[in-house]
Amino acid sequence: MSFAFFDQFEILRLLPLHPFGNFDVSITNSTVFLLIATLYFLFIFQTNVQNGTIIPGRYQSIIEICYETVHDMIKDTIPGNDGNRFFPFLFTLFAFILIINLIGLIPYTFTPTAHFAITFALSCSVFLATLIMGLTNFKLDYFSFLMPNGAPMVMAWFLVPIEIISHLATAFTLGLRLAGNITAGHLLFAILSSFVWQMLMAGGLIALASFIPLIICFAITVLEIAVSAIQAYVFVLLTVIYLNNSINLH
């Protein structure tokens, strides 16, 4: 039974494809739900942008909240108007991660962001993009952050390796944070749901007492919705911070 809790994270090959020997490009449940999230993103935003009204409806209100959230994030983090050119990318990233996280809360669906392979691909892409941007803007001066201002040169042998490790770790921690929080929430909900079901099947007073963990499950569901939004927000916020470091050298 304990292994069943992890079944929700199993990647299933729905359409095996091996066009180049061992090179696997199979269509999986992860692929399907990534595609569903993409199509939903394109549909909901395209229809509401084209048919927007002065008095917004439910969907338009949600889109406007997402828009203002990302816009304020960029405005507060990146000085001037330098960050505005990245708004389409950051807004898409925020909405895409949020949609994937929320779809994963629906029973019998799959959450791609619970897999580190997916989140690492996102975080590694952000890391490489900011690194290339920093080198393009400042050349080798970009690596001046490895040696903090005012630090004695004798400490360089100690500080520089630490800063290098810390900088490279951002490619891992950004994705690991997202995958870890989504996975933990799904596991907790699965365990409590199983506990409620076993109490109901026991019958008698135990079944009557099952309303207590049932209420907890409902509370966790609400919490998971909040976590889905918070994790999308944190991922994009850290991306904005990394972009700022590549635009404005410190």
Describe the structure.
This protein has 250 residues and is mostly helical. The chain has one domain. Helix content is 68%, strand content 2%. It has a two-stranded antiparallel sheet. Helix 2 crosses helix 3, helix 2 crosses helix 7 and helix 5 packs antiparallel against helix 7. The radius of gyration is 22 Å and the shape is globular. The protein starts with 12 loop residues before the first strand and ends with a helix. The model has no long low-confidence stretch (mean pLDDT 82).
Mean pLDDT score: 82
Name the helix and strand elements from N-terminus to C-terminus, one letter apiece.
EEHHHHHHH
Spans of 5+ residues with little confidence (pLDDT < 50)?
Answer: none
Number of DSSP helices? 7
Main sheet: strand order: 1-2
The percentage of residues in β strands lies in under 5%
Helical coverage, percent range: 55-70%
